[in-house]
Amino acid sequence: MKKIINAIIISAAAVLTGFVAMALPFRLFDKLTGIQMRILFIAEIVVYFLIVSAFFLIREAKKDKEEKRRSLAEKHNRRVEKRRGELKGLKIDGCDIAA
Questions:
Q1: 89 by DSSP, 3-state: which?
Q2: Which of 9, 48, 59, 93 has fewest C-beta within 10 Å?
Q3: Which is nearest to 50 in space by CA: 17, 90, 89?
Q4: Taking the alpha carbons of 33, 34, 38, 44 in that order, is the dihedral positive or negative?
């Protein structure tokens, strides 16, 4: 359910952004000079680049976080296994500690 709502919100945002991106230059076409239109076009390109870059940075941060979590879990498992190996065969009152 969460994925469906997320997809709907992202789709609505994409449609709205696309509409604004296309409607804005056409609305301003009669009011702006050629240089101003070029500046607006360059500004739009920069904004799109920043948005795409933000998505890539967020994705990379999630991958790095997952890799770090996995690495810490592997280190923990190695330490636990090493400790179990050290305690193996050690008996107190006839009970095996590692068991």
A1: coil
A2: 93
A3: 17
A4: positive
Asked whether the whole model's pTM tops 0.85, one would answer no
Residue 42 DSSP SS3: helix
Query: Distance (Å, rounded) from C-alpha 91 to C-alpha 96?
Result: 5
- Which residues have C-beta within 8 Å of that of residue 45, sequence separation ≥ 6? none
Q: Using alpha carbons, list the distances in angstroms from residue 62 to 26, 52, 53, 55, 65.
A: 38, 16, 14, 11, 5
